């Protein structure tokens, strides 16, 4: 009964109850049907670093929409959840916690430190699971997977061993990105480059030898000190401290300024080491002086030059970014302290020519924001080009579709220029490299299972490599490792390849590309057929959310305040694949308002249904199927059915095309606009009319369809309302979750009925707008005449509805000729199919309204005159700040606009007898939309 339905929707009283109900019924587990192709999503695993943020909420909301939709369509549906160990991020968090206790990981040692990490991880996993459940996500929790569990660990080791045996994993010395704070190497994708204001330092290197080579060429300088000639070559650098690691000075072979120096040597400042002058095409003659220092151990471009020219590598830094023994007198100093000391010494020696401001891009650690140091070190790499070729082909030939399509080119550009992937990390938390070094013969043993002895000489004296694998190595295996690979499991055979990979566009290269490469390599099949990339969440101004800006919205707080369905609605509405979206408190409030609107609508329908069943003493489950009552349906009934079936077709089409935000917006507009604002208002008229055919069957059927359409987006409120409605439905599954998703009935779509009702709505809306403009009291009826332009348009049956909704009485339909006669002394609304004539005598007190409008016109005319006079005053224009002058100009424009609109209103109402004006038509009189 209506008394049992609360007046307001309270999400906290609903959400937990229904989630537990779904869990207990086992609805989240897939129903395997060998005759049907399953729909499968493998959840992008959140990191075990703390609570979920809005990005996780967006990801899981979109995936839950797709999952619930396919489940309601009858597809065998698997959404497999999991979490990621996140080596760098998790170790960073745990180390920060230890610092609060005055400890470091080195104080504990590796074993005890890992115990702390596992304790943190287990707590974090519980928090993440509960927060996911709070979001209402319908994944199969019985299959939840963690990247450090035995199954994924076995997949990681198997992949490493297989790639090593194929020669696709190797160990070598190359320039890598080193984070001094995290004390590990980073991949290129884990480095974020930022534009910083730095300096370009011009430094002179003395040429070796005592002979003077006088020259006026640019770039060299000849001086005589103490009777002996000295010659210099000047280089420009942004990192002067790395001078200590130089092994050459390079110029472009086409640069005529330096040809005479090629083959000679320069003396390195501070350490006195002689280095050659060489030529290489990589040098840009326009940069600085055209001569550059070559520091192979600390610059990737210089490393490549050194490889081509056979130059040695001189590492001048320790792993904590302090200077080592190769830095000579600066040993032990921090890199930036060494920079300052070296510059001071160079200035004393007259070798610092000049310092210029310089904007350049500098890499920073994605996690801790520390400035990254390019450093040559011996690391493990994946030879990636052979793996990239089939991954490129899979996208080019259409086996994998990237949504939106514009990211396909982005993917291909990156894959076609891909570099080898550094996969070793100098951390303690993560998948340890399955590599053992023999202390006897020096050979490597690479194995899936821990060996007892060297595979080459049989010595038991072997040590495992202390490094761990890059987190993304295990994540790259996620779609197939979660389903049991490398074992031939039933899950792997049925659910792989998966259907959709849904994630943010910002990890297209981190994760998506690597999953495609590894999936094809390990299984011979693509890991998924579609990649759906969503955008980033920004605040209402379009700024990226960050704690430093204090513009972060906590999803838990949002759910507490607005409800989970409102948060899900706000995250989805207006979203489009690949586009960033804005989220604000106002959007959340609007989403909550829609939930309340839906609640009140259902409450109205159920209340009237209870009353009807009680009045006629009928059981609570009458046959309310309107499809059996076609001959008894009113025009508005056929109209709402037609509009509803159009909506069903459009929403299904939107979901098929992954335009989830578009689909939700269409449902919102239909519910709030056509159903609530118009059909229910028309239904109220019939409910108050004794003996009139009841609109209840159509109301119930439409509400049922709306709830099923909305369920994937707003699962909690739709389940609560549907359970109350279900007792009145001819078919009643135990949950809306397993009810069928609506399919459009093409036979119910009626274009003629839609046009007829659109005309009725246009008439009512236009009259309402005219009343509001004229200030007519809401309760007062006014006269209206309708001159029909299309004689075939049947409006007579709608006159009672128009009269009631527009508050017009008497309401008369007249022909065109009569309409021409009645237009004098009336406001005419020119609409698509009709003209509505509203006699002025029934709308306003002409004399009082004329005086009011004239007073307003005089007031605004005076204000505009004063503002215009100020703007014509030369002293004001010369002395006032530019923003004040601009503000006055804007004020004048607003005053003139207001004056013009008042004058127009006076003319439209015919209050200017001395200046008669023709009646304004469609271009000047709003029909109100």
Mind explaining what this structure looks like?
It contains 27 helices and 30 strands. The relative contact order is 0.09. It is of the alpha/beta class and 929 residues long. Strands 7, 8, 9, 10, 11, 12, 13 and 14 form an eight-stranded mixed β-sheet that branches. The protein has a four-stranded antiparallel β-sheet with strand order 6-5-15-17. Strands 28-27-30-29 form a four-stranded mixed β-sheet. Helices cover 42% and strands 17% of the residues. α16 packs across α17 (585-615). The protein is globular, with a radius of gyration of 38 Å.
Blueprint (SSEs and pairs):
Layout lengths: L14 H11 L13 E4 L11 H19 L4 E4 L1 E2 L3 H13 L5 H4 L1 H25 L10 E2 L3 H16 L3 E11 L4 E3 L4 E17 L12 E6 L2 E10 L10 E4 L13 E3 L6 E6 L11 E4 L5 H10 L25 H14 L3 E14 L7 E10 L2 H12 L4 E3 L2 H11 L4 E2 L1 E2 L9 E4 L5 E3 L15 E3 L3 E2 L1 H5 L2 H4 L8 H6 L2 E7 L3 H16 L4 E7 L2 E2 L16 H8 L1 H9 L8 E2 L2 H31 L19 H22 L3 H28 L8 H15 L4 H12 L24 H24 L7 E7 L10 H8 L1 E7 L1 H6 L4 E5 L3 E6 L6 H26 L2 H6 L2 H27 L21
Parallel strand pairs: 1-2, 3-4, 10-12, 16-24, 23-24, 25-26, 27-28
Antiparallel strand pairs: 5-6, 5-15, 7-9, 7-11, 7-14, 8-9, 10-13, 11-12, 15-17, 18-22, 19-20, 19-21, 27-30, 29-30
